């Protein structure tokens, strides 16, 4: 059995990791960290967790020093993972980080968006963990930087066309909406029920931190400097995310040609479904699953292609993708513990 530990086990992404890994036939969770619930058993905090899947919750340092694990999932706030990762790697533990600490390759870019990095020497060795794009590198990696949820939708939506001459990719417009769980489990006034329950608002309109991640990966694929005009929105649902992406398109480009490019690109991908024409992604149809649904239409009047991508931000946008990466790193069947269908309705 693969021995797994989860840092930040009682946050939303940590809890989602527990849900998925508890169904994994090749994994045993042997410990987790929690500032709030340290020195308790996980089953004391999570009444739905069966005794057979129970494990201790401890403080971060205790988990690092006492763990004889094979893989560590870091579901920690941005900035905290960088101070933990090296100690785990030095102990021979593979690391999958769900924060932004290792997603950006360039130190100056990272520090201009996030502030001073706590372990910059690790940046060059981290693999960006979007399996549909970097599967071969993930397979050999010791440190994987799990993608952000918003970048996952935008990159998956653009990757099939990034090198097609029919598209102008110098400036991509991405309009994205996310459920409230994307803000984390900590109590915040602007994500409380009364503040967010019947609202719908943009935020981070200029300079959202996920922008350099999108631009880095798309520019690498396209071998050119790609810019993304990105606006996120908060919608009054607990989980789910849709990105609507607008790309300038050469006149006369046919929708079926573009759909075929998407179907070809993702033909061997277990978790990406390209929808038929006039069928649009819906968060309720991916809720609780590791699937991404993609559709597109071409607006001949304005010569724009409209690409729409839906995922569950906690699964394919975070913890499900992390488990997918773990399966690849340990040479397991990539779909293990991830084939559950959406929770519908």
What's this model, at a glance?
This protein has 345 residues and is an alpha/beta fold. 29% of the residues lie in helices and 23% in strands. The protein has two domains: 2-125, Rossmann fold; 150-313, Dihydrodipicolinate Reductase, domain 2 (2-Layer Sandwich), CATH 3.30.360.10.
Top keywords for this entry?
Dihydrodipicolinate Reductase, domain 2; 7-stranded mixed sheet; alpha/beta; 8-stranded mixed sheet; single chain; Rossmann fold; 2 domains; 23% strand
Describe the structure.
The radius of gyration is 20 Å and the shape is globular. It is built from eleven helices and 15 strands. The chain is of the alpha/beta class and 345 residues long. It folds into two domains: 124 residues, 3-Layer(aba) Sandwich (Rossmann fold), CATH 3.40.50; 164 residues, Dihydrodipicolinate Reductase, domain 2 (2-Layer Sandwich). The strands form two sheets. Strands 3-4-2-1-5-6-8-7 form an eight-stranded mixed beta sheet, sandwiched between helices. A seven-stranded mixed beta sheet has the order 10-11-9-12-15-14-13. Strand 14 and strand 15 form a beta hairpin.
